[in-house]
Specification:
The structure holds two protein chains of two kinds. Chain A is α/β, with parallel strands linked by helices. Chain A contains 26 helices and nine strands. A six-stranded mixed beta sheet of chain A has the order 2-3-1-4-5-7, with helices on both faces. In chain A, strands 6-8 form a two-stranded antiparallel ribbon. The longest helix of chain B is centred in the middle third of the chain and has 10 residues. Classes of the chains: A alpha/beta, B alpha+beta. At the A-B interface, helix 3, helix 12 and strand 9 of A face helix 1, strand 3, strand 5 and helix 2 of B.
Chain lengths: 569, 77
């Protein structure tokens, strides 16, 4: 099987091109480091259907970090290279191209982001560039689909020049010549987006802009999330699903084994989706009605911000604050992704170069960054008792984030590295692509989360029926009752919390907790352990030794914070 | 006159004349396209020794202060 590699600088649109060539959907964003793992897919254009591989970005064939090392290793294993070049930054991009021409492998150039060149006043003569380089050059746009067919058709023309290795300065000289022959720049006026680009990194204007963005983000997530729950999903569930479940309840008979598992317990003779806790009642209600709307609203806003290119600018603004907790500004990006789901958040830790910062970031994420599924259920459950209690829970998490980071930064040897990032230009998000990305993330949630939720509820009900939970509750009672002041029945929530955090929080619902107990319960569920899926990714990314350390930190923090809250509140 | 990147004023344009540091640092800068002879424009600098944002050709970068102090520029004032 022929292997075709997409190779190029970071954020030149390799993943968008990959999607176009293969039809495989991958997450595409307008900033560096979205692709941390390679993805592969079969090309769908033409008779000849080679394997296409989306390689993480690299600036040159001499690695300066781990991610680049991985990319360079993969290049050695390919059969053909599509060198994806950002046509708005020809000069820098051609350095890698010239390095590739010294390898013994056929190369074809995709002059990507072609549609951006016009309004930037850049005029490239692709034909001339092709003559200068001696390999095929095709103007493309991964976003609009321009030139994709031609690229596929001309793929067999890719040529291996196997040029003799030359020094860097000779390469730059040659690039200078190529660029002055093939590219003409014309002056153009600054657009509104250009102005906004710079305004959002000036401290005086950038910080207010950041506050406005954060306010609107929060407001849109709430507005869309609550709207979907109140006007769409709750009515659908109450009017269509409830009658079906009521029938089933009568059919199975209250108190029977199957009734306990699938419908759960009746509250005042009726099914209550929030507290009955059957697989088909609460088990479906939590992921579909309570969580899904917030997943939709969160990823919609995140997708827009990713494609616009705001996140790297935000990371520059928070750089100073992040150094207090031993990280640099760019580490805010995995944290923001972690707010959606900790699994992609943990994967994104790869954009951090050093072991120390990875360890700090992973610990902070596992302890103090709750995922949207968990936040949604907390909001649904605790919100009813008053906004004050929500403030306490999230206030504690934010405080923990800062204090833990500060302590780790002081205790761990070494210092936090400085930020060094390329800031992408702002791009108007393409709504269709944003919706496609949202859909992809929703499918991920429905496929990865919902089965786990149902399994979790099933598991709890079986443990309950077999009285195993009672045994465990008694065993953990001293910690729960004496230290945290919550009833021992909450043990089952702690057990399920390993599987899914949203169900675990939901399990606090039927326990009739006081406000104080609910706050303590939710906070502990957020910090004591990440869900199993996140845990698995973190073990892979950090190794088992660091994960044991992190686990010990998490458990002791949970013990301490729970006890402290029990005393203070 | 020669200044380092942190001393460059907002919107000022200057040429890179020297990048001080180990081989790794030099390579990292060169890979990004920050190299001797290139024209830099400073866009902004954050408070309290925060990162400096600069523009080279069509590219923008944020560079921590420590690194910025190792980049020297020839500026006409």
């Amino acid at each position: 099987m022929e292997k075709v590699l997409l190779v190029g600088n970071p954020n030149v649109g390799k993943s968008a091109l990959f999607s176009r060539l293969t039809g495989v959907r991958v997450v595409v964003s307008n900033y560096i480091g979205t692709t941390v793992e390679f993805t592969q897919g079969r090309m769908k254009i033409g008779k000849h259907q080679p394997m296409i591989i989306d390689v993480p970005g690299t600036y040159s064939l001499r690695a300066t970090n781990k991610a680049e090392e991985v990319a360079i290793k993969m290049i050695k294993e390919g059969d053909v290279i599509i060198n994806v070049v950002d046509s708005t930054n020809l000069e820098r991009n051609l350095f890698l191209t010239l390095q590739l021409l010294e390898q013994n492998i056929p190369v074809i150039v995709a002059l990507n982001m072609w549609d951006d060149t016009k309004h930037k006043g850049i005029n490239i003569d692709a034909r001339k560039l092709e003559q200068e380089l001696g390999i095929p050059v095709v103007p493309t746009s991964g976003l609009s689909g321009l030139g994709i067919k031609e690229l596929a058709e001309r793929l067999p023309e890719a040529k291996s020049l196997n040029q003799k290795e030359s020094s860097d300065s000779l390469k730059w000289k040659r690039i200078g010549k190529i660029v002055s022959n093939a590219q003409k720049l014309t002056h153009r006026h600054h657009s509104f987006l250009d102005m906004l680009e710079d305004l959002s990194v000036h401290p005086y204007t950038g910080l207010p802009i950041a506050l406005v963005v954060m306010f609107f983000t929060f407001w849109i997530i709430r507005f869309v999330g609550e709207g979907l729950i109140g006007y769409v999903l709750e009515p659908v569930f109450n009017n269509l699903w409830l009658p079906v479940m009521s029938e089933l309840s009568v059919l199975l008979g209250e108190g029977s084994f199957l009734h306990n598992i699938f419908i759960g317990s009746l509250i005042d003779g009726k099914i209550d989706f929030g507290t009955s806790f059957g697989v088909l009642t609460t088990g479906l209600f939590v992921p579909v009605v309570m969580v899904l709307p917030y997943i939709i609203s969160f990823y919609l806003v995140l997708g827009l911000m990713e494609d616009f290119g705001y996140l790297p600018r935000f990371s520059v603004l928070v750089d100073n604050i992040m150094h207090v907790i031993g990280l640099h500004g760019y580490a805010i990006i995995p944290m923001i992704l972690g707010l959606g789901c900790n699994v992609p958040g943990a994967l994104a830790l790869r954009i951090l170069d050093e072991k120390r910062e990875k360890f700090i970031a992973a610990t902070l994420m596992a302890i103090a960054v709750p995922c949207m599924a968990q936040i949604a259920v907390i909001a649904g459950l605790v919100g009813k008792r008053g906004a004050k209690y929500l403030f306490i829970i999230f206030g504690v998490l934010v405080t923990l984030f800062i204090i833990k980071g500060f302590i780790l930064n002081k205790v761990l040897k070494g210092t936090s590295p400085e930020i060094l990032i390329e800031i992408p230009p702002y791009r108007m998000p393409n709504l269709i692509l944003v919706l496609k990305k949202l859909w992809m993330r929703l499918v991920f949630f429905l496929k990865e989360a919902v089965p786990f939720v149902l399994l979790g509820v099933l598991f709890v009900n079986i443990l309950h029926t077999l009285k195993i939970i009672d045994f465990l509750s008694d065993a953990f009672a001293p910690i729960l009752v004496n230290l945290w002041g919550i009833p021992k029945e909450a043990t089952s929530a702690l057990i399920i919390g390993f599987l899914r955090k949203d169900v675990a929080v939901g399990m606090l619902g039927p326990l009739n907790l006081t406000n104080k107990q609910l706050v303590i319960g939710c906070t502990i569920l957020a910090i004591y352990f990440p869900c199993i899926a996140t845990f698995a990714v973190l073990i892979r990314e950090l190794g088992i030794k660091d994960m044991i350390k992190i686990s010990l930190i998490m458990i002791s923090v949970a013990l301490a914070v729970g006890t402290l809250l029990n005393i203070i509140l | 006159m020669i200044v380092d990147l942190t001393q460059l004023k907002k919107d000022e344009v200057a040429n890179i004349v020297e990048i001080r540091g180990g081989r790794g640092f030099q390579l990292k800068m060169e890979n990004l396209g920050i190299r001797i002879g290139k024209k830099i424009q400073k866009i902004s600098s954050q408070f309290l020794g925060g990162p400096q944002t600069i523009k080279i050709d069509n590219m923008r970068f944020a560079i921590g202060c420590g690194m910025a102090r190792r980049i020297f520029l020839e500026v006409k004032r």
